[in-house]
Design goal:
By secondary structure, the protein is α/β, with parallel strands linked by helices. The protein has three domains: 6-109, Gyrase A, domain 2; 129-210 and 389-451, tRNA modification GTPase MnmE domain 2 (Four Helix Bundle (Hemerythrin (Met), subunit A), Up-down Bundle), CATH 1.20.120.430; 220-378, P-loop containing nucleotide triphosphate hydrolases (Rossmann fold). Helices cover 46% and strands 17% of the residues. It is built from 16 helices and 13 strands. The strands form two sheets. Strands 3-4-5-6-2-1-7 form a seven-stranded mixed sheet. It has a six-stranded mixed sheet with strand order 9-10-8-11-12-13, with helices on both faces. Helix 11 links the parallel strand 11 (302-308) and strand 12. Helix 7 packs antiparallel against helix 14 (394-415). It starts with 5 loop residues before the first strand and ends in a 7-residue tail after the last helix. Residues 244-257 and 381-386 have low confidence and may be disordered.
């Protein structure tokens, strides 16, 4: 497949040591050579880097001193010729070099177009392409490891094996139907088909069982810190983030708006949200903050509900317990360094089976217990798996669910002794759903939509 030559800035825009302009396509080397003062790039060996200067196209003014990397197809990320121009960091230098490259015949790349070409040229499949963005967006080491396993092709290999098992079953049935005179071909029975599809069903079910954990590692847990004013919500935020992110005072109602921050807790990315204290108030600004707290509460994956050790439980607290009834939450009783006024037994009764942690944030006590409770709540065992086949992508999870449903429909049809050529319709549907994960049966519009979400230059 022949493409034109594209170019884009592949490093973040802003001040830094270096910036990189990347070219990919059949004319990448020749375009770079027209503006490069140094060695003749068409004559250099592949995968080498060379010092020189980039000149303005219409004048002999030096745009910048550069190092130019030349990588020849097919041993490149896109399987095309790639040139990377390493210039000084900063907005002006890299923007000018990109402008010169475009003036000499390259086209500005679309978002994700380099990775899309790697997919279209067969270097990676669709699940690996999506893993590229997961690597870029990883917020913890564990999330990075899951993305790297997927980029390495572990999920792709498993999906390919499952599809192969299904297509062999389909082919066996079709041979029996189209060539009944072939005595040397074993006739496919209902029991044989059920046995062959059961393996695929069990593997899909296993992937779905850990999908929730994979999705958490990829996207993080939206975690709301709630409670009445002055129970220590902002102090907890600062303790977990390990910096003074929220203002802490003894004045109730200090936090008027929502404060968000990502934090890594034992490999689990938490999107912490410090909310305004929930209470009845006549202060207009604080009232808006309280309303936003209620909205955040409804959208949260996890709630950290904070109470004050040296104050009795209030009606406001009991109302919050009622709001949390159908949510994942952990109760935190803060300020245990002060005299106990709260009824612990009543809290245990209201919290039911949800975790109860005691802390003294001013003395830095209880944070380890909280982190352990968080890990136990979302991960019943160690996060890392030996084979690295976590499914973390929402699209993949949905397709696996559809695959499982289709196989279960096939199993039900077998139980009703339906003809095998009818049963194989559901098996073929499963094969197609799995193919969408790796891109074999994905539509062109889906592929375009997925790559449009990538950053420019990747």
């Amino acid at each position: 497949m022949e493409f034109d030559t594209i170019a884009a800035i592949s490093t973040p825009i802003g001040e830094g040591a270096i910036s990189i302009v990347r070219l990919s396509g059949p004319e990448a080397v020749s375009i770079a050579d027209t503006l490069f003062i140094g060695k003749s790039l068409p004559e250099v060996e592949s995968h080498t880097i060379h010092y020189g200067k980039v000149m303005e196209p219409t004048s002999e003014i030096v745009a910048d001193e550069v190092m130019v990397s030349v990588m020849r197809a097919p041993k490149t990320f896109t399987c095309e010729d790639i040139v990377e121009i390493n210039c000084h960091g900063g907005v002006t230098a890299v923007s000018r070099i990109l402008e010169i490259v475009l003036e000499n015949g390259a086209r500005l790349a679309d978002p994700g177009e380099f990775t899309k070409r790697a997919f279209l040229n067969g270097r990676i499949d669709l699940s690996q392409a999506e893993a590229v963005m997961d690597v870029i967006q990883s917020k913890t080491d564990q999330a990075m490891n899951v993305a790297l396993h997927q980029l390495d092709g572990k999920l792709s290999k498993l999906i390919t094996e499952l599809r192969q098992a299904l297509i062999e079953t389909i082919a066996h049935v079709e041979v029996n139907i189209d060539y009944p005179e072939y005595d040397d071909v074993e006739e496919m029975s209902h029991d044989m088909m059920e046995e062959k599809t059961a393996f695929v069903h069990d593997e899909i079910d296993r992937l779905l069982q850990v999908a929730k954990q994979g999705k958490i590692l990829r996207e993080g847990i939206k975690t709301a810190i709630i409670g009445r004013p002055n129970v220590g919500k902002s102090s907890l935020m600062n303790s977990l983030v390990q910096e003074e992110r929220a203002i802490v005072t003894d004045v109730p109602g200090t936090t008027r708006d929502v404060i968000e921050e990502y934090v890594n807790v034992r490999g689990i990315p938490l999107q912490l949200i410090d909310t305004a204290g929930i209470r009845e108030t006549k202060d207009i600004v604080e009232k808006i903050g309280v309303e936003r707290s209620h909205q955040i509460l409804a959208e949260a994956d996890l709630v950290l509900f904070m109470l004050n050790h040296n104050e009795p439980l209030t009606d406001d607290d009991r109302q919050i317990f009622a709001l949390l009834e159908d949510l994942n939450y952990i109760v935190i009783i803060n300020k245990i360094d002060l005299e106990q006024q709260i009824d612990i037994e009543e809290i245990k009764s209201l919290a039911k089976d949800n975790a109860l942690i005691t802390t003294s944030l001013i003395e830095e006590k209880g944070i380890d217990d909280l982190e352990a409770a968080l890990a136990h709540l979302f991960f019943s065992k160690d996060i890392a798996t030996e084979d690295g086949t976590y499914v973390s992508n929402v699209r993949h999870i949905q397709l696996l669910k559809q695959s499982k449903e289709a196989l279960e429909e096939a199993t039900n049809a077998l139980a009703l002794n339906m003809p095998l050529d009818i049963v194989q319709i559901d098996i073929r549907r499963t094969w197609e759903y799995l193919g969408e994960i790796i891109g074999d049966t994905a539509s062109e519009s889906l592929i375009d939509q997925l790559f449009s979400q990538f950053c420019l230059g990747k």
